[in-house]
Amino acid sequence: MSDKVKKQEDLKKDAGKIFLEEISESPLTVTILAIFTGLLLGGVLVAITTEAVYQAFGVSLWEGIKAAVGAAWQTYQALFYGSVGNPSKIIAAFQSGDAEEIRWAVNPFFDSLLVSTPYIFAGLAVALGFRVGLFNIGAEGQLFIGAATTVTAAIYLKGLPAIIHIPVSLLAGFLGGGLWGFIPGWLKAATGGHEVINTIMMNYIAFRLSEFLLRGPLKNPEGFSPVSAPIQESAQLPRLFQAPIRFHIGFFIALFFAFLVYLFLFKTTWGFTLRTVGANPRAAKYAGMSIIQSTVLGMFLSGGLAGLAGANEVLGVNHNLALAFASGYGFDSIALALLGKSHPLGVVLAAILFGFLRNGAIQMQILAGIPVDIISILQAFILAFIAAPAIIRTIYRLKEPEIDIEAVTLRGWGGN
Amino acid sequence: MTTKTATLNDFEKTSPVRRIVMGLVFLLAAGLIWFLFIRTLEPGVKTTFKMMPGGSNQTIPDWIFGTVPMLKTLVGISLVAGGYQLARGFRKRTNLVLGLVGGMFVFAFLTWATADGSLNLAGLIRSALVKAVPLTLGALSGVLCERSGVVNIAIEGMMLTGAFVSALVGSLTNIWIGLLAAVLSGGILAAVLAVLSIKYKTDQIIAGTIINIFATGITSFLSARFLQVYQNLNDPGRFPTIKIPVLSDIPFLGPILFQHNMFVYAVFIFLIVITIGLYYTRWGLRTRSVGEHPKAADTLGINVFRTRYFSVILGGFMAGFGGAYFTLGSVGRFDELMTAGRGFIGLAAMIFGNWNPFGSFSAGLLFGFFDALASKLAILKVPIPSEVMLMFPYLATMVILAGVIGRGQMPAADGQPYEKE
Amino acid sequence: MEPILELKGITKSFPGVLANDHINLTLNQGEIHALLGENGAGKSTLMNVLYGLYAPDEGEIYVRGKKIAISSPRDAIAQGIGMVHQHFMLVPVFTVTENVMLGDETIRAGGFLDRKTPADRIREISHEFHLEVDPDSFIHDLPVGVQQRVEIIKLLYREADILILDEPTAVLTPQEVDELFTIMRSLVESGKSIIFITHKLREVLTFADRITVIRGGKVIGTTTPAEANQNQLAAMMVGRDVSLEVNKEPAQIKDIVLETEDLVVLDDLNNAAVKGVSFDVRGGEILGIAGVQGNGQTELVKAITGLSHPAAGKLRLLGHDITHASPRTITELGSAHIPEDRQHDGLVLTATIADNLVLNTYYRKPFAKYVVLQEDKVLENAEEIITNFDVRTPSPLIPAGSLSGGNQQKVIVGREFSRPIKFLVASQPTRGLDVGSIEYIHKRLLEKRGAGVAILLVSTELDEIMELSDRIAVMYNGQIIAIVEAEGATKEQIGLLMAGVTEA
Predict the structure, then answer these.
(1) Structural domain tally of chain B?
(2) Given this model, what pLDDT does residue C204 score?
(3) CB within 8 Å: B288 and C85
(4) How far is A416 from chain C (nearest CA, A)?
(5) pLDDT band at B406 (very low <50, low <70, confident <90, very high)
(6) Full-model pTM
(7) pLDDT higher for A247 or B250?
(8) Contacts of A392 in chain B (CB under 8 A)
(9) Quick one: average pLDDT of C347-373?
(10) Does residue B7 sit in the same domain as residue B94?
């Protein structure tokens, strides 16, 4: 064997090694392993909270393991059926050729996308905040206010064609949520009051405000419960299929906004400014950027996106505004932004994942008797692994990357 | 930042602007009482305050007085305070006087709202105290963590977990063991917070958020899986009301302060113990030094990490205890998401109370008072929606945070991971 | 007599820097031993090793003749070693007593803190050593000089007899310095031994018993004030042998570009850091600002670049009043800035090299069309600068943080030099760089000078100032105490001026 050939062989070997190293250093690997480990732990949780498993362990160890794996398998199968659909049913439906049957069979899939839609908006909201170095924990409040302003526009503006009414209503939601983000942003810039506390406070003010509105000015005069009147038909987001599929164009609007946010953040000078302020405010100041402007703008846009999540639910799904119609989005959206590494594409993927999980969980509760709340637990596990990647690296013996580009860094607690 | 704090402190101490602003605020209070309240009343109406909470066996006559004269007196005091403030200034006592004037304004509001009617004042105060219990416990949890330099926004999650665990374990054993288990569960979550934020140096707010998400999920999950299926697992009972002999016979104050279950007394004890602990023991001195200037503590041989772990876990115990209040001290069973944001108001009370136990309690009482008042508004036929009243704690916290009234003294190293070189 | 403390062969390296290179040092009982050296010479590292804050790579420590291991401050305290850090280790919201007793508290019956016994002890100590301080006052109410007394009391309270004072005079007024030396004298008279870290020549000659000079992590020599004089010490401290020769063309002086007039600038704590400074910089010349770190240079640069606004005085750039202008306005007038702290102020380490190269031009043509970033132009620009400035990187699209220090600095220099500039502030442009990069940056600075740019060079490296500058302004205690022509100036002369000695 000549030296030359030998060298090439070595090179090949090295290439293989380098490839493996690159994989193990890639943040994406950590993300995927975090999701995997989270799901695994979820399975364990299901197994240890299933009585049949204990009975089986009473019989023999092997039976016990079988039962434990079986319980977890059944859970995740139900989750899959509930989120994507039952494959055999789908095949059967397509073979039968009956349109309605097909729609029923694929409905879980479209419903999951429907559930994903507000997550995309809310996740984008928090992600945009992170990019500017702001921790917007108030997506939920902004969502409520956005929903309230949207519903106001969607009920009281009359006689508009859909092509105008829908954008105007969405804009109302954006501005409403934006205002709710602007206030803590302004407070941070002007007084140094920390946005975490202020957005939490604004959340509760928003809940009380929406309660007040729904018991008073916005209440449907024809009903007794705290629910608004239905919105004008011209403001409803059009559905793309016949019943039972509720899937509407909101999903595409969300994708469009994700694209817009991407363009804004990465392709415009404004985004450049905001990202620089978020990554290193000191260097941003040296380069002549205004920290105050960026903070206020960042919180406004972040709030606006969260407001669109509310608008989407009102215009696309509920067609009215009810009390606490969308609780839990505040924390979920933080999870999405972290999971998606604060990148619009990552957020969209994370939101779709959570949409499928959340939607599938409903079937899972019905079929396997596993409460939907397991999704929150999965979320917490995945997030803990993403936030402390050292845990995942230790478990799977991954190499430490040289510099951690993805670390979420936030500025101090007490306002500087 | 240093610049800002320095100038703000100067501003608070010496600024003539602030003196005048505060003086005008006092005068404004007088003006509001005059125009909003007195001008809208018929002369000669009377206000009746009942001085016994419901269920009390004391007999204290109702407090009946002429509404307008009382309001005029309050206007007079506010005017004097405002005038003095404008002319000479209360200086260091400005905030105290501000508190008094605020209190008078609230009292004026009650007096006016009760004109021609009656209100159970003792009941209102008692109810405020009861509502302050979980808020104060939550705030104390925050005080313990943040005094050592670790931000805890997971108080809510820890309380929720405590509530669940106390229901489950309390039903299986007895309420005392249930209480103990709740305390431990809070401690375990706090240990997770501590490991994430001290060892892995995860952003403390993210770590807290993770715990909140986890707590929401696990309590609802297990509750749906077990408590709802086996109702007997969700029946831990409640701690009985204990009348403190002698003290509970004090007129007016007795029934308000000394006829409660042990949680209320525990709050009093914790307040004293933590205050003494923080300010009069070695542990407290070291904990506060670690929260203010960890490097200084390190150079004197104090183990920063160990001190922080200890305080955070202690804070977790406190939150777990506060969580148990919801089941063992209040409703007697666990409901999903039953803490309903009280942990976050506790956090707000801590900030409002300047990271200080009694300050937190005062803030808790204030927030509790507005909560209690909101539920009475309907009876009083006051044209203020209760929801608006309930926004008060949040608005007040934001105002405090903005430094309008005076910025609190947050532990200087709060929220910053300590890096040993 | 056996020395009370002996350090043998102490070696400590940090990534890329050998901070202490086999350092030997002895401290006799009852002496004030000055450790003299420039910033970055390795004095503080040595003392942090001794105090247990850093673990040495090599070397042995003997206290009172016995070899000991010090792995934490606790060990050091137990050996009777105490240290006053350059940045005080005091909790501002605590009282004097609380700060002093922290970590060494006395407990009353019932587990309560005893504040009275320590307070009494503090009074005793303060009486004995003339360290007047009220045990009950809060630190944040005390002036810096008194805070330092509290730090010293902390050591005495722990009965330390080896006291390390790290740059104790850096933060003091001249009167406070005198008081400090009286205190130090009374301490050694009562049997304490003191290691006193400084870079100020006059102080060591007046107050030290012995002087050890450290340069570049090595001991250069030990002497006594009787044997030494300021010129000798200055030479030992700055070193004559290290010299990077550069070919400098004669200056082509043009019009005034930057003018400062009675400039007063406050620092973060609202103290005047620049106290009425006036000078000008002309096109085609390099004005070097020499001075020991912390004499107001940082604040001066901040004011000139618009990062802070002067409290008084005037700033004019190319005829425009920039006293209250924003950083962007100043940049747009044709000013460039190489900041002192490149990793925090000069670069966004997580952003790509290409983005860092347009950090202050991204919003203008050709990099932006209206608000749309022109990525191809940004990339072209990056490739051009990477080639022209010899930045060693596999790609312009990797994060700036993955580059070496020298290449990071080249990114900054490349960014600032690639636009048409008329004025340049270079703050510590070669700090922490290897010799090759230093040479490179120096060459580039001289090129810009040749092109008629007015350059303000701020550096604590005397060699650098001497080699590059046409005129040298020495800053001391917030003032420019002399401006001399570089031609004919000697290092000794400038070194003395840097130490505040004007009469020499």
Answers:
(1) 2
(2) 86
(3) no
(4) 13
(5) low
(6) 0.86
(7) A247
(8) none
(9) 92
(10) yes
Distance CA(C32)–CA(B135), nearest Å, equals 58
State how far the Cα of A148 lies from the Cα of A229, in Å rounded to an integer: 12
The Cα of C65 is separated from the nearest Cα of chain B by a number of Å equal to 24
Asked if B222 and B164 count as a contact pair (C-beta separation under 8 A), the reply is yes
Domain end (from B52, B86, B115):
B115
Query: C-contacting residues of B 242-301, CB under 8 Å?
Result: 276, 280-282, 284-286, 288-289, 292-293, 295-301
Interface check B6 vs C, CB under 8 A: yes
Confidence of residue B13 (pLDDT cuts 50, 70, 90): very low
A9: pLDDT strictly greater than 70: no
Give the model's pLDDT for residue A378.
92
- Tell me the C-alpha to C-alpha distance, in Å, between residue B236 and each of A349, B159, B240, B260, B336: 44, 17, 12, 18, 16
Sign for the CA dihedral angle at B162, B167, B169, B173 comes to positive
pLDDT in tens, C293-323: 778 899 999 999 999 999 999 999 999 999 9
Mean pLDDT of B133-138: 96
For residue C103, give the nearest of B284, B293, B301 by CB distance. B301
> Is the peptide bond preceding residue C92 cis, with omega within 30 degrees of 0?
no
Q: Which domain holds residue B179?
A: 123-401
Pair B77, B224 in one domain: no
Instruction: Give percent of chain B above pLDDT 70.
Output: 93
Residue B421's nearest CA partner among C51, C177, A367 is: C51
Please work out, in degrees rounded to the nearest 5, the angle formed at the alpha carbon of residue B295 by the alpha carbons of B291 and B297: 70
Instruction: Please tell me whether residue A178 adopts helix, strand or coil conformation.
Output: helix
B129 and B171 fall within a common domain: yes
Closest to B114 measured CA to CA, from B37, B226, B166: B37
- B394 close to A197: Cβ distance less than 8 angstroms: no
Neighboring chains of B (3 or more beta-carbon pairs < 8 A): A, C
pLDDT band at C235 (very low <50, low <70, confident <90, very high): confident
Q: Are residues B16 and B164 in the same domain?
A: no
Under DSSP, the state recorded for C471 is: E
| Residue in C328, C371, C401 nearest the CB of A268 | C371
Residue B294 inside a domain? The answer is: yes
Euclidean distance between CA atoms C71 and C79, whole angstroms: 12
CB–CB contact A387 B203 (8 Å)? yes
Same domain, B383 and B282: yes
Question: Nearest 10 degrees: CA dihedral of B329, B335, B337, B343?
Answer: 0
Residues sharing a CB contact under 8 Å with residue A86, sequence separation 6 or more, in sequence order? A105
The CA distances from residue B190 to B164, B287, B309, in Å, are 16, 16, 9
Segment B279-303 mean pLDDT: 93
- What residues of chain C lie within 8 A of the CB of A402, using their CB? 402
Average pLDDT, chain A: 87
Cα distance from N-terminal residue to C-terminal residue, chain B: 24
Residue ranges of domains in chain A: 87-339
Tell me the shortest Cα–Cα distance from A318 to chain B, in angstroms. Answer: 24
More confident residue, A194 or C105: C105
> How close B399 comes to chain C (CA, Å)?
24
Both tokens of C181, joined, read 């030396």
Separation between Cα atoms, residue C227 and residue C204, nearest integer Å: 12
DSSP annotation of A264: H
Contacts of C360 in chain A (CB under 8 A): 287-288
Cα–Cα separations (whole angstroms), residue B320 to A329, B240, B274, B326, C496: 25, 20, 16, 10, 65
Q: Give the pair of three-digit tokens for residue A394.
A: 């230790």
Residue C71 sits at the chain B interface (C-beta within 8 Å): no
Q: What backbone torsions phi and psi does residue C126 show, to the nearest 5 degrees? A: -70, -30
Selected residues 385-414 of chain A with any CB under 8 Å from a CB in chain C: 402-403, 405
